[in-house]
Amino acid sequence: MSDITTLKTELTTQIEAANDLQSLDDVRVSALGKKGRITALMKTLGTMSPEERQTTGQALNALKDEIAALIKSQEAALKKQALAQRLATETQDITLSTRPQRQGAVHPVSQTMEELVTIFGAMGFKVAQGPDIEDDWHNFTALNFPPGHPAREMQDTFFLPEDPSEEGERAKKLLRTHTSSVQIRHMQNHQPPIKTICFGRTYRSDYDMTHTPMFHQMECLYIDRDVTMAHLKGCLSDFVRAFFKIDDLPVRFRPSFFPFVEPGAEVDIGYVKKPDGGIKLGKAPEGEEQKWMEILGAGMVHPNVLKNCGIDPEAYQGFAFGMGLERATMLKYGIPDLRTFFECDTRWLAHYGFDPLQRPNAATGQ
Length: 366
Ligand code: FA5
Fold this sequence. Notes:
Layout: H1 2-17, H2 21-32, H3 37-43, H4 50-89, H5 108-122, E1 126-128, E2 133-135, H6 136-139, E3 173-175, H7 180-189, E4 194-203, E5 214-224, H8 229-244, E6 251-256, E7 261-273, E8 279-281, E9 291-301, H9 303-308, E10 317-324, H10 325-333, H11 346-352
Parallel strand pairs: 1-4
Antiparallel strand pairs: 2-3, 4-5, 5-10, 6-7, 7-8, 7-9, 9-10
Helix pairs in contact: 1-4, 2-4, 5-10
This protein binds adenosine-5'-[phenylalaninyl-phosphate] (FA5).
Adenosine-5'-[phenylalaninyl-phosphate] (FA5) binds near residues 217 and 327.
């Protein structure tokens, strides 16, 4: 028994003296390993008398458990100490910059819409909305294109299957060919004064450098008692100059035909040809030819359209205009091909897109 007590004292001293995990493991192997000292003593039990074996066996088992527990707690203490040491000495440089993040960009058409909301919002216009899937009545008939009217052919239309729950022209569904249908829906539900703009996708069976099957339009509608062509000219001239940011941008009104306005006009803005074949918006310098480019259709809302929407044309009149947003965006930002707007090429977007954090300023329209 005194051997066991001596061994316990020795091993306890060795365990307490072990100051790293390796030396502690060496003590463990020397005590409890296959050839360890406690293991060796265990092996002598077989040679003892039953009584001696019982008392020595119990003492050895107790010693084994105590030594194992001591090693465990020393190990925990050493690990804790090692961690405290690492925490005290290791540092992390948190000033290192992160890997560059890819930043998205606002599509030029979205940018244009925001700019237009800013400009027209400052003039008191509110945004109206209407559906992409229209019926023949809202897209054509109510806008004074009676069935069979040749002007319907001007807008190559995508027709959809008829809706059996509706009748006549309202059953004939189509993808709207222009945002003028939103005028109709708005006037059906509101009495003048009406001062709205609307944006949206429009669809025609067209495809080349300046035409795509889906494009965006903006529509403007102002109806009140005394609205005249002079208001239309003033509003349009102010708007194009603010949008293109050219104070003396030449604006020209040319007579034109749209069934839903009378009189109707197309609006051109002035530009000059650059020597490299490109164009520059603005007034031609003395001696250079002033060129003109059409940007939108406009006119005084036809009395038949007002009647179709339940508004008295004897009491009210007003103007409307509609513009292709991609064309306006191409002109403003020098984008040469309309088709690229819808190719979803992120390189194109990185080049022509806008910073999502720098939105048009509501106060200045910039
Ligand atoms: C109209 O759509 C009339 N609703 C505009 C209007 C509204 C006139 C109110 C009078 C009063 P138009 O078919 O010309 O008009 O189209 C207007 C603009 O849409 C064009 O000037 C052009 O910029 C654009 N546009 C027409 N077709 C396409 C196309 N396939 N791809 C891209 N832009 C197009």
